[in-house]
From TrEMBL:
Alphabetical UniProt keywords: Amino-acid biosynthesis, Arginine biosynthesis, Cytoplasm, NADP, Oxidoreductase
Protein name per Swiss-Prot or TrEMBL: N-acetyl-gamma-glutamyl-phosphate reductase
Subcellular location: Cytoplasm
Primary localization class, coarse: cytoplasm
Gene Ontology molecular function: N-acetyl-gamma-glutamyl-phosphate reductase activity
Family statement: Belongs to the NAGSA dehydrogenase family. Type 1 subfamily.
Lineage, highest ranks first: Bacteria, Thermotogati, Deinococcota, Deinococci, Thermales
Described purpose of this protein according to its UniProt entry: Catalyzes the NADPH-dependent reduction of N-acetyl-5-glutamyl phosphate to yield N-acetyl-L-glutamate 5-semialdehyde.
E.C. number(s) listed in UniProt: 1.2.1.38
Superkingdom field: Bacteria
Family matches, as PROSITE patterns: ARGC
The keyword Protein transport belongs to this UniProt entry's keyword annotation: no
Annotated catalysed reactions: N-acetyl-L-glutamate 5-semialdehyde + phosphate + NADP(+) = N-acetyl-L-glutamyl 5-phosphate + NADPH + H(+)
Length: 348
């Protein structure tokens, strides 16, 4: 049994980690922390979870655990990860702190990077592209929901050099904004649909471009710190009045001759054997992925315009966050990748 701990367990991602890890047969959850709830029982933050344990101080969790999940706000993991690594721990970071080169991170997040030397060690934790790198990693940068959906939607086109750009529209449930996200009061989101961070300002854009640029330059199995091609994507997110779920529509600019049969063949070959990618003959919907670690994809050739549309649906708190973190943990520990992770969603 591998001892694992969670820092930042009072956020939505932390709660999903607890739920998944408590059912994991090969790990022992030895502690979870929250500065807001330290000393209080787990039920004080999460009444749906049943556990006699208390929220522990951060230092105790770090001391007990062999692997630490950092489910913290951006800017905090870069301070804690070096401490954990020096103590011989392995780290899965759910924030954005190690996903981008420090200078790019600072430009888009507006936070000076305090551990820039660790970026070169961090492995990008999208198993469908970086599986072998993750197996030997000490520090994994776990991607988020929009980026996971966008990257998996367009990676097959990038791998054959056909992707030239794209226009992406994302729709997210309210939990994607976090437990203390602004503008998420019921009276503001109920019966309402609104775009946000439009005009190329969303901070996940450079991460999408970097991921797909690596695939363009390196092919099917890119290295985190290998070469990348230049790519420009337009991305506009929207807030939807539902609890959880991501639906992404990508309109890809492609090179070469395409039709529906060739497009489907490409995606079937690329994702053959992937445990958490399902290719559909119908259009994806968020409810089908609710509480699962699965992403549903549908590539569609639009003959009238000669463009390629790709639709992607996933649960932003599972495959888009905590479930993907556990998937990375399984790889790091040499365990079956799908261990303790649900492939089926909840319906209705």
């Amino acid at each position: 049994m591998v001892r694992v701990g969670i820092l930042g367990a009072s956020g939505y991602g932390g709660a999903e980690l607890i739920r998944l890890l408590k059912g994991h047969p090969e790990v022992e959850l030895v502690g979870f922390s929250s500065r807001k709830h330290v000393g209080k029982p787990l039920e004080a933050a999460w009444p749906q979870l049943w556990d006699g344990a208390l929220f522990a101080p951060q230092e105790e969790v770090l001391e007990r655990a062999e692997v630490v999940f950092l489910a913290l706000p951006n800017g905090l993991s870069m301070e804690i990860a070096p401490l954990a690594l020096r103590e011989g721990k392995r780290v899965v970071d759910l924030s954005g702190d190690f996903r981008l080169p420090p200078e790019v991170y600072e430009a888009w997040y507006g936070i000076p990077h305090k551990s820039p030397e660790l970026y070169e060690e961090a492995v990008y934790g999208l198993p469908e592209l970086h599986r072998e790198e993750v197996r030997g990693a000490r520090l994994v940068a776990n991607p988020g929901c929009y980026v996971t959906a966008a990257t998996l939607a367009l990676a097959p086109l990038a791998a054959v050099g056909a992707l030239k750009g794209g226009f992406l529209v994302g729709l997210s449930g309210v939990s994607g904004a976090g437990r203390e996200g602004e503008g998420t009061f019921f009276a503001e989101v109920n019966e309402n649909l609104k775009p946000y961070r439009a005009g190329g300002t969303h901070r996940h854009i450079p991460e999408m471009e970097a991921n797909l640029g690596r695939v363009l330059a390196q092919g099917r199995w890119p290295r985190t710190h290998g070469p990348r091609a230049e790519l420009r994507l337009s991305f506009t997110p929207h807030l939807v009045p539902m609890t959880r779920g991501i639906l992404l529509t990508a309109e890809a600019e492609v090179e070469g001759h395409w039709d529906q049969a060739r497009l489907e063949g490409l995606y079937l070959e690329f994702y053959q054997g992937e445990p958490f990618v399902r290719l559909l003959s119908d259009l994806p919907q968020t409810k089908a992925t609710y509480a699962s670690n699965r992403v549903d994809l549908r590539p569609l050739y639009e003959a009238r315009t000669g463009r390629v549309l790709v639709f992607a649906a996933l649960d932003n708190l599972v495959k888009g966050m905590a479930g993907q973190a556990v998937q990375n943990l399984n790889l790091m520990l040499g365990l079956p990748e799908d261990l303790a992770l649900p492939k089926e969603g909840l319906w209705p």
